[in-house]
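Lecture notes, continued. The same structure-token format from the folding unit now serves as the input rather than the output. Read the line below as a description of shape only.
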């Protein structure tokens, strides 16, 4: 039975800008939109969490707390405000103790947050249990998100080469399916039992096909008693068609973006959803006149984000569903899509939706993501890693090894941070084989932690033999949150003897993202110090390492950062003699730790960086001579 009303969760201010523009939307652009958002009538506005707390401090030098407060004040309770939380990992990449989780949740709800969407990269219910309870106890609305993923498939290339039979001991056959409809429904039922007030099917890579959207959404509606939300992306070309199928199969809430922030690697545009719903006789619970005002202003906002826009020269056509008349052949495509969806003709449905998106000028489906069935960001990270290693020719090999790494590591879903971990390890495995080394000779620290059990329980148990091979022990060892140490809050003698963090909000930022928050908070203290000492203080600006360190020209050979990131450890010093293969330093980039090793015997002339320093792409790290 079709719903007569469809609630909308608008993602524009969080997931929309994160998916398309690297979360670089400054507060001034958000402020320009907020007066119109008050009247938009969205059921939920997603405005916080995910990459926002990190990115607004790291790249915009802005306060995530001020962002939440400002939006809450402007919306005046007319829409629920939501954030995305990675459960035990919160908005970071490692597990945190309950004291940190509760502190953040309490402060967020106190500053106007209503809904916390909670997911775990492994779909480990134990990793979301405490968060759901805390949000309920604090008066918020816990939204339990089940992460969608697919079983590795045997590609034609893999079958021809005997790849899967070699990996799994089965002749040209795919292993038993794990991620069935029942798997997702069971996870949803467990979350509802724990107290989730909304259940979301979270399709972060856009891999839910229309047929799977129909079967899973209909089964969720039959098995849970709370609202069901569908969240997807258009990356591989399923998003619009699967959203239509979810609507027809009774979904309560649909995640969308406003026109200029929709499509491509983001969720579908609400304007296209509105056209479908008008034809279906379903009321979209949003004020489309107010949406139109936001859309008009959002065009200029997107123009301001051109530096981060991969499609800056290919904007969609302007479209107002309230006033514009579609050409007859395009209007007919919407009817064709609806008829195909109702009859279960997936091919016709996809063809019609792709033609609609093509007419309006939205990005075409990413066929590589579609065929490889991996998130676009995971693929980009693998390309960057191979480029840094000078081994771009191994990309196909690394992609073929993803199924093996996933299965060895317990068939983990591919979502942050596990997608980055699996992708990086597949690259390492391809490099091992090229060098003639045994598999898993080179293991990342995150992969070791994953196999050890520190990220939680994997969907399929990891064999004790493999765990022993990777970690040195066959025993599963969960992350010990009691080992967490609250970061220091140092006194800044150079800035008048004040503490780095001056209130609970700032202490929470320091606890969650110590490196990024350290720089951000120091900037705030410096501003305050300079304001008091304006007549004598000289403004100083922290910069990343450059090629003129110490004003001494570089004369030797140099290791440079292939990607921007943070220095985790420096293992050498000036004048030290090192042997080929020795570890020089470790830096974090693309959410992964990267080892820099000596390519030959050498003597260190200079080290340009220090622990915790943030460096840009191509910044010099170490100068040496052979």
């Amino acid at each position: 039975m079709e719903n007569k009303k469809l609630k909308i969760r608008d993602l524009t201010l969080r997931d929309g800008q994160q998916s398309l523009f690297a979360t670089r939307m400054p507060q001034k652009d958000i402020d320009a939109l907020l007066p119109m958002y008050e009247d938009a009538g969205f059921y939920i506005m997603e405005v916080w969490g995910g990459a926002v707390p990190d990115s607004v401090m790291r790249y915009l030098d802005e306060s995530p707390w001020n962002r939440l407060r400002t939006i809450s004040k402007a919306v005046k309770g007319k829409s629920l405000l939501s954030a995305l939380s990675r459960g035990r990992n919160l908005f970071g990449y490692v597990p945190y103790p309950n004291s940190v989780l509760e502190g953040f949740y309490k402060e967020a709800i106190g500053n106007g947050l209503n809904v916390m969407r909670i997911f775990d990269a492994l779909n480990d219910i134990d990793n979301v249990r405490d968060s759901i309870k805390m949000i309920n106890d604090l008066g918020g609305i816990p939204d339990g998100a089940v992460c969608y993923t697919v079983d590795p498939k045997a590609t034609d290339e893999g079958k021809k080469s005997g790849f899967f039979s070699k990996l799994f001991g089965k002749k040209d056959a795919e292993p038993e399916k794990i991620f069935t409809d029942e798997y997702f429904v069971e996870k949803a039922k467990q979350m509802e039992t724990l107290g989730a007030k909304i259940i979301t099917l979270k399709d972060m890579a856009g891999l839910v096909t229309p047929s799977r959207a129909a079967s899973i959404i209909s089964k969720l509606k039959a098995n849970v008693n709370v609202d069901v939300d569908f969240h997807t992306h258009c990356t591989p070309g399923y998003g619009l068609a699967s959203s239509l199928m979810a609507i027809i199969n009774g979904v309560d809430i649909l995640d969308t973006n406003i026109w200029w922030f929709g499509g491509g690697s983001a969720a579908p545009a609400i304007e296209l959803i509105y056209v479908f719903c008008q034809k279906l006789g379903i009321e979209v619970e949003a004020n489309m006149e107010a949406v139109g005002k936001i859309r008009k202003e959002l065009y200029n906002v997107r123009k301001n984000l051109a530096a981060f826009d991969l499609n800056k020269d290919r904007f969609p056509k302007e479209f107002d569903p309230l006033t514009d008349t579609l050409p007859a052949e395009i209007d007919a495509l919407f009817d064709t899509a609806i008829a195909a969806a109702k009859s279960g003709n997936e091919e016709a449905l996809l063809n019609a939706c792709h033609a609609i998106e093509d007419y309006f000028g939205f990005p075409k489906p990413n066929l590589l993501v579609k065929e490889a069935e991996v998130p676009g960001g995971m693929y980009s990270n693998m390309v960057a890693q191979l480029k840094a290693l000078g081994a771009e020719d191994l990309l196909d090999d690394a992609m073929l090894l993803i199924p093996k790494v996933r299965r060895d590591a317990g068939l983990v879903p591919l979502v942050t941070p596990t997608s980055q971990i699996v992708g990086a390890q597949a690259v390492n495995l391809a490099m091992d084989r090229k060098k003639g080394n045994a598999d898993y000779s080179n293991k990342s620290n995150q992969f070791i932690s994953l196999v050890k059990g520190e990220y939680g329980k994997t969907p399929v148990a990891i064999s004790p033999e493999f765990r022993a091979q990777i970690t040195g022990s066959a025993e599963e060892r969960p992350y010990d949150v009691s080992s967490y140490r609250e970061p220091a809050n140092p006194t800044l003698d150079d800035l008048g003897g004040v503490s780095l963090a001056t209130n609970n909000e700032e202490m929470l930022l320091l606890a969650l993202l110590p490196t990024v928050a350290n720089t951000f908070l120091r900037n705030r203290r410096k501003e305050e110090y300079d304001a008091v000492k304006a007549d004598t203080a000289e403004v100083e600006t922290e910069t990343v390492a450059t090629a003129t360190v110490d004003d001494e020209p570089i004369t030797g050979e140099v290791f440079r950062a292939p990607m921007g990131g943070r220095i985790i450890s420096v293992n050498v010093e000036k004048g030290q003699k090192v042997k080929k293969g020795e570890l020089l330093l470790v830096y974090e980039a693309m959410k992964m730790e990267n080892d820099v090793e000596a390519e030959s015997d050498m003597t260190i002339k200079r080290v340009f960086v220090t622990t915790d320093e943030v460096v840009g792409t191509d910044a010099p790290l170490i100068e040496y001579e052979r």
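Point for the exam: The chain has four domains: 5-368, 374-482, 500-532, 549-625.
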